[in-house]
Request: fold
Amino acid sequence: MSTPGTTPAPVQAYPLSTRVALEALGSFFIVFAGLGTALFSPAGSASTIGFAYGLALVACLISFGHVSNGYFNPAFSLAMAVAGRIKWLAAVLYIVAQTIGAILASAVLVALLKVMPAGATPEIPKLFGALANGFDSHSPSQVPMVGVLIVEIVLMAVLVAVVLGATSVRNKTTMGPIAIGLAFAVAVTITMPLSNGSLNPARATSVVFLAESWAVGQLWLFWLAPLFGAALAAAVYRSFAPARSLAAVDEPETTSAEASELDSATATAAAASTDDDDDDAALPKPVPAVPDAASSPAVADAVAPEAAPKNSDAQDFFDSKGK
Reply:
């Protein structure tokens, strides 16, 4: 807590290494939750898997989102850089960390499958091939490449608009993480029957090395489309949003508690200033001193009474005769 009447110390940014590590951790948890639900949930429907991704994203946003502003998805990190929210170096490191975290999530799932009873699960390449993102004959609904490309671009652009709006400094709501997570859950649910649900290049990469050979050949679309949609939405947003100072780029966002503390300190300072004004108003006002007429001829002429006219000789004659 800051002392009333003093300026609170500025919030310091977290070290870059900490932010990169948390981006990897968040990506690991989100991909692990989504793929784990698809693998082990008995009712692994599109909505169930989509909301597993969304709820995991909400948890990570609430816990770590204020630290790095990368939001655990390469497309979101690119959008934050284009929008001027984070620096480009940080965005590149975030994307690398997010991809590594997603691959580690798939590796842990493979380790879990290895210790399950024999015959309980199908072969690893076939199993992860069913989870890999694809188009044409590898799409669950046989959607052609152009259709998947359009859906990925449009939905990612909408998601980035939601993220940028929910995390704007002008948005005073505390429901931003829930809004982002719900939007992501709905978007993944839409794409599940079309391309096995992606909208996350790191998630798309995490399974291709364990799936059948065709998955690597189609991975390019699930990087190109989300990144293009994210960059496009961020560029449009930045053209309309007020420009932010470069000094504020890559800084952690002020939490609601910190904002309340700042507002409290400001209100206290304002109240102290008002009290001083009231005390001054209660004191008697000093009476302005009247200038000395002798020291200021102009003032003397203004304040001195009009001098009596001199008597003429005729007036003296009549006055003296009447006495």
About this structure: Residues 244-249, 251-262, 269-309 have pLDDT under 50 and may be disordered. Residues 88-114 form the longest helix (27 residues). The chain has one domain: 16-260. The two ends are 94 Å apart (CA to CA).
